[in-house]
Design brief:
3-stranded antiparallel beta sheet; elongated; alpha+beta; about 45% helix; about 350 residues; Beta-Lactamase; Enolase-like, domain 1; Arc Repressor Mutant, subunit A; Heat-inducible transcription repressor HrcA; transcription regulation
């Protein structure tokens, strides 16, 4: 974004106006700024600056007799030039995540659920986290678990720590000796993990089973069917799944008092997630290794239903590569210092947590 080229006085008055409006939701006048922000200039001087900031499109007056409120452009200058993310909030959310989420005791998708709840509770806005998507979607682990006398559960874990499961019949060759079913399923699980771990979908489809170990030859057809099932389960979805919390909380903000606007936003969140997800997951090649948080303010959002909102998002990674996103949706009158810190800290935490899971 280009610089605003505002001088120091204009910057200070714009910053104070934005901060006061965010805190109170009330239009800001020159008297309020003189009394509350210790400006060593007259009310008339501040009034003149506010008028100039309005002419430049950074503020506007909801009514001719009222004070000014920030425009989307005013918020943009504030975010890009006038504020710094709150490091205190970063430390608080990091401690919350560390204390409330025990990485070793959760599946990764469960950890994401809890992280989304924590993010929504702390921010007071809508928190969204996408489940990790990997380009390769490789097999990390599988397990065959007996669930009844004739059926078993195939459990598949990918390198992105997504879990899939499917109910299958136990092969007749194993059922010949019921006392050995558990032992045989464990042996098959170990064999398949040894043979298949680290393979992607395309590699699994093209495996050559003609030279299968002699002791597993009797399971050849079963193993081929099993691999086919695994391949299907590892297919990468075009649209990543999302976890969302905080919708009821954010609707308490005065910006969401217009029924039609609220209905449009709720319809997007509930029925049109395929349109929302690309905004949350958007990142450029230059951002792949950066910690940059993406902030879309009001009219910067391409979706009409999002133009009363700000979307703050950041990616979390597997190694160097983005695999998922953390996002917060709130009103444009948002606590930007806090929200940007929350999103960035959570994304960093999930990057570390995903690395721990994968190396475990």
């Amino acid at each position: 974004m280009p610089k605003s080229n505002l001088n120091e006085r204009y910057q200070k008055i714009l910053k104070a106006t934005v901060k006061h409006y965010i805190a109170t939701a009330e239009p800001v006048g020159s008297k309020t700024l003189v009394e509350g922000y210790n400006f060593r200039v007259s009310s008339a001087t501040i009034r003149n600056v506010l008028g100039q900031l309005e002419k430049e499109g950074f503020l506007y007056q909801p009514h001719t007799s009222s004070g000014r409120v920030p425009s989307d452009s005013g918020y943009r200058i504030y975010v890009d030039e006038l504020m710094s993310p709150d490091e205190t909030i970063s430390k608080q959310v990091e401690q919350n995540l560390l204390h409330q989420l025990k990485r070793e005791s959760w599946h990764f998708d469960t950890l994401l659920q809890r992280a989304t709840q924590i993010l929504a509770n702390i921010s007071g806005y809508i928190a969204i986290i996408t489940l990790p998507q990997t380009a390769s979607n490789k097999l990390k682990h599988l397990q065959l678990v007996q669930v009844s006398s004739k059926q078993m559960m195939l459990i598949i874990v990918t390198d992105g720590y997504q879990t899939q499961s499917v109910l299958m019949d136990i092969p007749a060759t194993i059922l010949d000796d019921e006392t050995e079913v558990l032992a045989e399923l464990n042996i098959l699980s170990n064999f398949l993990n040894h043979q298949l771990k680290g393979y992607s979908v395309s590699e699994l489809v093209n495996l050559d089973w003609s030279r299968i170990d002699q002791e597993f030859l009797q399971y050849k057809n079963f193993i081929k069917n099993l691999v086919q099932e695994i391949s299907q389960r590892l297919q990468v979805e075009q649209t990543p799944s999302i976890i969302m919390h905080g919708v009821s909380e954010v609707l308490r903000h005065p910006e969401f008092s217009h029924l039609q606007q609220v209905q449009m936003l709720l319809h997007l969140l509930e029925q049109q997630q395929d349109q929302l997800i690309p905004l949350i997951c958007e990142y450029s090649e230059s951002e792949t290794l950066s910690k940059k948080v993406n902030v879309r303010i009001g009219s910067e959002n391409p979706l009409k239903s999002m133009r009363i909102c700000t979307l703050v998002s950041a990616v979390y990674r597997q190694g160097e590569y983005p695999v998922g996103s953390v996002g917060i949706i709130g009103p444009t009158r948002m606590l930007y210092e806090n929200t940007i810190s929350l999103v960035e800290t959570t994304a960093d935490y999930l990057t570390e947590a995903l690395s721990d899971f994968i190396t475990a």
